[in-house]
Specification:
Blueprint lengths: L14 H10 L9 E4 L2 E4 L3 H13 L5 E4 L15 E2 L6 H7 L2 H24 L11 E5 L9 H9 L5 E3 L2 H8 L6 E5 L3 E2 L2 H14 L3 E3 L6 E5 L2 E6 L2 E5 L1 E4 L9 H4 L2 E11 L3 H7 L6 E3 L6 E5 L5 E5 L21 H11 L8 E12 L5 E4 L6 E5 L8 H13 L24 H21 L6 H7 L9
Parallel strand pairs: 1-12, 2-3, 2-13, 3-9, 5-15, 13-20
Antiparallel strand pairs: 4-8, 5-7, 6-7, 10-11, 11-12, 14-17, 14-18, 15-16, 16-17, 19-20
The protein binds flavin-adenine dinucleotide.
């Protein structure tokens, strides 16, 4: 496999990574040269891989763990995202479809606990990741979106769970500082983070716990035998007892995963730092906000007074494969800027300083799935976080650590170890169909923004879309 280094220089990295790398002042781990032996080899230095490594080190400190990262830790989605550390409460209905109600409740609670644990971990390990537990405003920016949360709230009420608080229009306005928000609900268990500071902090914590990390070291291939796994890299080889693949959207290279994975771009912009202007808008510091469209708009203030504003449902990767365009300048940058300015008209004159885009691994049922690759009990993977991985990757780390250590505990037997029931169509139908569905989605959402009803055909086509930020 060719190296998937995505950025030629640090200036081309997302704002978050630029900020952190500047602070670090250059601290790359050298590439692996020669042959190495570890007990567990993890491939992919994002949140999922690093939480897995840290969890193994906590559970069994004598187990030798090595992480291979093709670029630098955080170079994937973990250093490029919106920084919403969310729970699985908005996805409760989907959880319940695939497991018992008790299991669904347990997992949703675990995802909420994960957000708090991330904050605690940062405190205990002196990670300055701007963790702000200010909650999430799930809102509507046109009348068609109003009440999008009703079914979720009803479903949750039927099992006695009340993670969301319904808000008056006035409260919505006061919290989010925008008259574009017509209604909404608030979830207190959500936090915002500076994601690159978190992932680089996890890297330091992992190293401190004895984990070995090799950066600029792409896994080329691996071979499994009765003795173990051999992972080849350009400068040598790692022998391990267990292999854990946490390469996120890059896992689409394996057919058995690609059948359940859709890789889509997400586009992000960031403004200049204008803390006084943000204060005058009245946006609650750290509050995460998203609207209720499928091509979701997500936005949050940063601790240094910028707005980071993103839009999901972007470019489609052919055969779900990663390609450079998914990490290039956002095609929809002008649209995202326009949406930001319409949402916060009083900030229209604030300069846009950064734009970037990244790949999101949507599973066919919008929740992650975990398993073993090629029927080998030595090769584990976790993927499909579907635009909601900042918080849930902590849970993913617990699952993968237990799997790699062969533990039959709550995590080693989690119902998230599963194959999604829906398989996506093969190429070229997948990409062609994806383009048709996305065109229909654009048409539907633009009609709704103009207060018009989309045609029935357009609505029917959009229902084929398996990806969802919530629901
Ligand atoms: C623009 C954007 C906005 C998002 N916003 C949010 C949000 O606000 N909230 C939220 O919860 N989620 C969000 N997400 C999703 C979230 O970022 C991911 O779910 C999460 O970061 C996944 O972490 P990961 O460790 O699984 O993957 P990654 O961080 O992508 O890590 C995978 C790593 O594997 C490495 N790799 C790939 N191939 C190889 C190889 N062959 N050998 C070695 N290493 C390899 C890559 O370089 C990469 O560093 C967003 C994603 C994007 C792209």
């Amino acid at each position: 496999m060719a190296s998937n280094a995505k950025y030629e220089s640090s200036a081309a990295r997302p704002l978050w990574m630029q900020q952190v790398l500047e602070r670090e002042g250059g601290d790359d781990r050298p590439p692996l040269q020669g042959d190495e032996n570890v007990d567990v080899c993890i491939v992919g230095g994002g949140f999922t891989g690093l939480w897995t490594a840290i969890r193994i080190a906590e559970l069994e400190p004598t187990v030798r763990v090595g992480v291979l990262e093709s670029d630098i830790c955080g170079a994937g989605a973990s250093g490029a995202n919106g920084g919403f550390a969310m729970t699985w409460w908005p996805k409760f209905a989907t959880l319940k479809k695939m497991m018992s109600t008790d299991d669904a409740l347990r997992l949703a609670m675990a995802s909420e606990k994960a957000v708090a644990e991330i904050g605690r971990f940062c405190d205990n390990n002196h990670i300055d990741a701007d963790f702000v537990p200010a909650g999430w405003l799930w809102t509507a920016t046109n009348s068609s979106q109003l009440g999008s949360w009703n079914d979720t709230i009803k479903d949750l009420a039927s099992v006695g769970a009340t993670p969301f608080r319904e808000l008056s229009q006035r409260e919505v306005l006061e919290m989010g500082g925008s008259e574009r928000h017509l209604g909404g609900v608030f979830e207190a268990g959500v936090a915002t983070v500076q994601p690159a500071a978190l992932v680089r902090g996890l890297r330091s914590a992992a190293i401190a716990a004895g984990v070995r990390i090799w950066e600029k070291t792409p896994m080329l291939d691996f071979n499994v035998s009765s003795q173990g796994v051999k992972v080849s890299v350009p400068g040598g080889m790692v022998s391990a007892d267990q292999l854990v693949l946490t390469t996120n959207a890059w896992l689409a290279r394996y057919k058995e995963i690609r059948r359940h994975l859709l890789v889509l771009g997400s586009d992000v912009i960031a403004t200049d730092a204008v803390p006084e202007r943000l204060a005058s808008v009245g946006w609650t510091p750290g509050l995460a906000i998203s609207d209720s469209r499928r091509m979701v708009h997500y936005y949050r203030p940063t601790n240094d007074g910028r707005v980071v504003f993103g839009k999901g449902g972007g470019r489609l990767g052919f055969r779900a494969h990663m390609n450079r365009s998914l990490w290039a300048t956002p095609l929809r940058g002008p649209q995202v800027i326009d949406q930001f300015r319409r949402t916060y008209p009083t900030l229209s004159d604030v300069a846009i300083t950064n734009t970037w885009s990244g790949a999101v691994d949507y599973s066919s049922d919008s929740l992650p799935f975990f398993g073993t690759l090629g029927g080998s009990e030595r090769v584990h993977y976790g993927v499909g976080f579907s635009g909601n991985g900042v918080g849930p990757s902590y849970v993913g780390g617990q699952i993968l650590a237990s799997r790699a250590l062969g533990r039959d505990d709550e995590w080693g037997t989690s119902p998230m170890i599963r194959t999604p029931q829906t398989a996506l169509p093969p190429e070229p139908f997948r990409t062609l169909g994806g383009h048709v569905v996305r065109a229909a989605m654009r048409s539907k959402e633009s009609s709704e923004d103009q207060g018009k009803n989309p045609s029935r055909l357009v609505r029917r086509i959009t229902e084929l879309d398996p990806t969802s930020f919530v629901g």
